[in-house]
Amino acid sequence: MQIYLPIAEVSVNAFLLLSLGCMVGVLSGMFGVGGGFLMTPLLFFIGIPPVVAVATEANQIVASSFSGLLAHLRRKNVDLRMGLVLLVGGLIGAALGVMVFNYLKSLGQVDLLVRLCYVVFLGVVGGLMFIESLRALRKSRKADGTPARVRKERSWIHALPFKMRFRTSGLYISVIPPVLVGVMVGILAAIMGVGGGFIMVPAMIYILGMPTKVVVGTSLFQIIFVTAFTTLLHATTNFTVDIVLAVLLLVGGVIGAQIGTQIGTRLRAEQLRILLAGLVLLVCGKLGFDLLVQPSELYSIGPVGGH
Amino acid sequence: MWRTLLFCLLLPASLAAEEVVLGLSSDEVSITTRFDGDEILIFGAVKREAPIPDGPPLEVIIAVTGPHEPLTVRRKARRSGIWINTDTVEVDSAPSFYAVATSGPLDEVLSQTEDQRYKITIERAIRSVGAPPDVTDAEAFSDAVIRIRTNASLYQQLENHVAVDQQTLFRTDIDLPANLTEGDYATRIFLTRDGQVVSSTETSIDVRKVGLERFLYSLSRQQPLVYGLMSLAIAIFAGWSASTVFRLLRER
Which of A54, A87, A217, B17 could pair with A193 as two cysteines, CB 3.0-4.6 Å apart? Predict the structure, then answer.
């Protein structure tokens, strides 16, 4: 069944969108990631204009993270104070990101920027995750003892001013690093159309030293508000949020996530992480390959002035 | 040169001799949520006061033109290993849709001079003047517009696609693709003899988004903030209700 998307102004198969949403939903349920970093490139591949894909994906992430956040709030796994500090940074970052996005759009380089961001971040995160999980897999084979992570390191983080107490996380640190992490994630959310969980979660664990238990809930809290803000910015400056597209992806995504969670519980954590790393590197490779190989059509048509 | 001038002088007289009476299967195309392209049938007859003139047979050209808009055409080139947009040319005006259907080979039914006058072929429909000084091959950019849009079925050159009966009745059908934009689609019909236009008429087909499509599109342009907030609310509600349904199903 073909469906005409009112904002993207293209006609696509509704079942294709539902199954794309479902497929990414399975993966995000399996690995516990938002899946924005997979969905946005897939939307490029099926011919949705990148500007619409990025803005609509932000809208979809708000919705798919919402039920997750409710569950974490019920279990009190959200550090609201840390979430607010991350959020302040995130809003600043999102505003900066949309500004950069619109500027490059007027230069005709926004596709390049989005694709380059994807290649760089997916490459780095996928690579690190791959090495890390290989190491963990080898360690768990050698000895059954869990490798305890040294958490209370006295690093440069503790020397910074403006300290604040975060009770839920049991931390007393400066607000500067969390704000910076928030800014970084906000910029990525606006430019790449992702929630940024794949950057924020490692940053919260390794840089801020937060306990793993509250990391996911707190990052969801920040992601919801930042992506909601990004959606509004894109909707009011670019008019590129396609609600019909968002709802179709969302319905598929929720169904997929249920299936994915079931599969996820049957696999071991290290295996899951290696699979996810492989997937991330695969998407990264495909995008990088497209940038390096001569495209079959060198010319592209866009509206005047980029608006 | 003299021949052309002579024909120009004779034109008003010949216009009266053969006239088009036109019909359309519909003068309105509605873009709904289920819109997947459309086909319009264009038919008509030639009205004459005198018997059919001798000489070359009557030919018919039908051109359907979507709304004109300015475009930015960009060309990629390899810079330090990756392919990025480098040269840019602004095309002043190009139709979003263009279909020309003819009753015979285009270069036989229409002379160059008449094409220039009435701007009938696709090449004539695109207007491009201002290429920046560093771009020497501006022609390649308008060619690219034609190539890309022809591949997307937005530009169609349909030779031998108009059926003419007894030099009086004619009929053609034109496929409108699914990725159509809104606007008035000018539909022009030309009657030619020996490459010269003897009569022409024009009408328009109204292509409009309707219903939900219309509502969402206008809201997103006129009240972007309301549209954005509504998108968020709908998406959150859809996501929440879908996962609640699933949880209830599993608990049962």
Answer: A54
Mean pLDDT within B145-157: 90
Cβ distance A55 to A238 under 8 Å? yes
Q: Say yes or no for a CB contact (<8 Å) between A6 and B213.
A: yes
pLDDT single digits (tens) A132-187:
888 877 877 665 544 444 445 556 666 777 777 777 777 788 888 889 989 988 99
The C-alpha atoms of residue A45 and residue B75 are separated, in whole angstroms, by 20
Residue A204 CA to residue B124 CA, distance in Å, equals 60
Tokens standing for A59? 């809208």
CB B171 within 8 A of CB B62: no
Residue whose C-alpha is closest to residue B29's, from B182, B141, B170, B161: B182
CB distance B111 to B168 below 8 Å = no
Domain boundaries, chain B: 2-209, 210-252
Min Cα–Cα distance to chain A from B123, Å? 17
- Answer for the pair A300, A99: CB distance below 8 angstroms, yes or no: no
Q: Among A1, A20, A22, A21, which residue's Cα sits nearest to residue A12?
A: A1
A243 with B235: Cβ contact below 8 A: yes
Residues of A in contact with B243 (CB under 8 A): 67, 254, 257-258
* Residue B97 confidence class, pLDDT cut points 50, 70, 90: very high
Question: Which one of B74, B147, B240 has the shortest CB-CB distance to A302?
Answer: B74
Q: How far is CA B54 from CA B150, B187, B223, in A?
A: 37, 29, 62
Do strands B28-31 and B196-209 pair parallel, antiparallel, or not at all (unpaired)?
Answer: parallel
The fold of the B2-209 domain, in CATH, is: Immunoglobulin-like (2.60.40)
B243 vs A: CB within 8 A: yes
Cβ-Cβ contacts under 8 Å, B147 against chain A: 297, 299
